[in-house]
Design goal:
alpha+beta, 2 helices, 17% helix, 28% strand
């Protein structure tokens, strides 16, 4: 999967490649789930979020966030 993205010239904003990147799909709209992170006093937390929800909001996709444990 990663090699295919490199060959196509696709670059991620993050330097990290996560285990399920490009494999998980939203159950509602079918778009990919992308990795986002949240930093707080308790530390850094990672989540997968629907691309549509992340870009356009809940008016377009009601699926929210999947926490990475």
């Amino acid at each position: 999967m990663f090699v295919k993205r490199v060959e196509n010239g696709v670059r991620a904003k993050s330097k990290s490649i996560y285990k399920h990147t490009g494999l998980l799909k939203c159950g509602e709209c079918g778009k990919n789930l992308v990795t986002i992170d949240s930093v707080s006093k308790s530390g850094r937390k990672l989540f997968y979020v629907c691309t549509t929800y992340n870009k356009y909001g809940k008016a377009y996709c009601s699926r929210r966030i999947l926490a990475i444990s």
